[in-house]
Give the backbone structure.
Amino acid sequence: AMHAGFAFLELGTVRRKNQINALVKILVDFSVSTLAYFFIGSNSSMLFLYTAEIYPTRLRARGTSTGTAFNRLSSSVGPPIVGATLAGFGLGSVYLLLGCVALVGAIVAAAFAVETRERVMEDVSP
């Protein structure tokens, strides 16, 4: 809905010959934003499931709640950072920032994450 509103707003402010270009730009922004939101949202869901597996039963609630607290904290801090990046450096920089955050997360997970596939929970989290 927000992109549709921006589309109408922007289409009303450009010359008629530029309306198609403006609409294509908005549709591309919408598509890339949707993909980014999908991957960030699915990453959060997978991390929530993974954190429950790696903590021992006696610490599972505390470990999962700590991970969820960091998730909520980043959800609070992220939008102002994205807004400042957008205002200062443009939309491409926002996508670059999101990609770098995802890359750092992937590197940290590859280096430190415990493989839990086909292992019983007692072996993974003693």
In short: Residues 55 and 62 are 9 Å apart (CA to CA). Residues 19-54 form the longest helix (36 residues).
